[in-house]
Amino acid sequence: MTPEQIEALFSRDAGDLRRRALATLIRLLGDFDLAEEVLHDAIAIAIAVWAREGEPRNPSAWLVSTGRRKAIDRLRRARRFDALEARGLLDPMPPETSGPSPNGQFEAPTPDHPDATTADAWPDDRLRLIFTCCHPALALEARVALTLRTVGGLGSDEIARAFVLPVATLQQRLVRAKAKIRDAGIPYREPEAHELAERLDGVLAVLYLIFNEGYSPSAGQEVTDINLCAEAIRLTRLLTELGTGSEFREARGLLALLLLQDSRRAARVSSDGEIVLLEDQDRALWNQDQIAEGLPLVDRVLGEGPAGSYAIQAAIAALHARARTPAATDWRQIAALYTLLAHRAPSPIVELNRAAAIAMAGDLDRGLLLLEALRAGGSLRGYHLLEAARADLLRRLDRRQEAADAYRAALSLARLAPERRFLERRLLEVTGESG
Amino acid sequence: MQYVLLIYENEARWGTQSPAEQQAMFAEYRAFTESIAKSGHYKGGEALQPTTTATTVRVRDGKTLASDGPFAETKEQLGGFYLVEAANLDEATAMAARIPGARSGCIEVRPILPTK
């Protein structure tokens, strides 16, 4: 193998060799930074040694053994004997991590060494890593940064650009997060059965946030070289591969939702950067591969038991994905699903979407009534989409004067340029003049 | 690792409770304390008298300034604490969640700074 081919083995796209090794090293060394540093060293050595001697039978084990030895060397040189002892690094390696003796040389496990024969000689620590990075004791923004950096393997500068943050700010967040893990004693483990559902909710919330940041970027966002939506999907997919039991049902639901939402991305924005509503989108631009993966997943999740909120949202997205044309959309089913969602995870936004669905299913008056009730309730005060939805229904009912007032109200609240332009166009339609 | 579990509650609530409710609360605290003592986690703890008995002391430029009341006027006040031994934050948090005050107020969980 050439050094370039070996380097390719460690690239993010090539799979999880690097992440698996990192997750295990964090467990063995009890230190995120040390684990990253020695893994970096081990990979540098691998590139040289494997080019000469070929890829070892168990590359993951090789990386971990080598990394562990480098850690021992580093700690010895720094005279950190307390750390060596505390982490059990002076003891002979436990069976599942055993490899060549720590004599300072880095040999690949020999073909007849037990670890070399089974790819699963190492427990998969990645689930532990995900749950630790998403621990509720960490601030949400810290969880997002740490997950993208450690689980996703993205660079600090890439993450900073994607969230429109100075790199120093992002790096500080990472430093503080790792310090909290260390100083407050956040354990590196998977949650126990009784807390799994709650902790999983926390993980899914982080992943959903990452996706939404990519899908609806904050004001001022420019095109970045990393795709947060793709990253959120990749991480969610990894989670569903690591956790396959019934407790991970909502993770599968989230994956289906993200795939189906992302499938429409190319059609959401026109070539001039204008917003294209669902009903106006060119469905030929929808990503059929993602739809093909998402639809059966929705069916599977719905068949697994009472649907969680992500599963219900995925089911709604599936109904859109299945409609060849806007007219073919099963709005009555969608309205029913929003009603279900309102029970499962009530929120004013869900009520808003429910009202819109009821209107689209043919009962414009009832939809409008529900929106008026929402407006009177005051919970969505300042939310331009409520005014925009009202305006839209009034427009469809040909109550143009009222629609114009509502579009003006929406404009007074809308911040993003593409949204403002859209509302201005609608206002022009109903008045024959601009606001 | 050792953690302090700081119990913050709205002490005004205490006055609105009937003697029976107060007794029930004491009993709950006693039961909790006994259980963590039995499991070996308990290292110490006390209930505090209300903030009307508090005095805040500062020394500035060599002068001692004592003033009446807690250091800050807050909606919830420090009412007591536990010092516990726990393997990690999750274990400390699980204990904190069992403190009766967690249901109406909140518990701050803070690791102590280990001395070398």
What this model shows, in words?
The complex is a heterodimer of chains A (435) and B (116). Chain A has helices at 3-9, 17-29, 32-53, 59-77, 81-86, 114-117, 126-133, 140-151, 156-162, 167-183, 193-215, 228-242, 249-262, 265-268, 288-303, 309-322, 331-344, 348-360, 364-377, 384-396, 400-413, 417-431. Chain A is mostly helical. In chain A, helix 3 (32-53) packs across helix 4 (59-77). The longest helix of chain A is centred in the middle third of the chain and has 23 residues, at 193-215. Chain A starts with a helix and ends with a helix. Chain B has 116 residues and is an alpha+beta fold. Chain B has a four-stranded antiparallel β-sheet. In chain B, strands 3-4 form a two-stranded antiparallel ribbon. Chain B is flat and about 45 Å long. In chain B, 16% of the residues are buried.
Describe the structure concisely:
The complex is a heterodimer of chains A (435) and B (116). With 435 residues, chain A is mostly helical. Helix content of chain A is 65%, strand content 0%.
Task: List the SSEs and their pairings.
The complex is a heterodimer of chains A (435) and B (116).
Chain A: H1 3-9, H2 17-29, H3 32-53, H4 59-77, H5 81-86, H6 114-117, H7 126-133, H8 140-151, H9 156-162, H10 167-183, H11 193-215, H12 228-242, H13 249-262, H14 265-268, H15 288-303, H16 309-322, H17 331-344, H18 348-360, H19 364-377, H20 384-396, H21 400-413, H22 417-431
Helix pairs in contact in A: 1-3, 2-3, 2-4, 3-4, 7-8, 8-10, 8-11, 9-10, 11-12, 11-13, 12-13, 13-15, 13-16, 15-16, 16-17, 17-18, 18-19, 19-20, 20-21, 21-22
Chain B: E1 2-9, H1 11-16, H2 19-38, E2 42-47, E3 55-60, E4 63-68, E5 77-85, H3 89-98, H4 101-104, E6 106-111
Antiparallel strand pairs in B: 1-5, 1-6, 2-5, 3-4
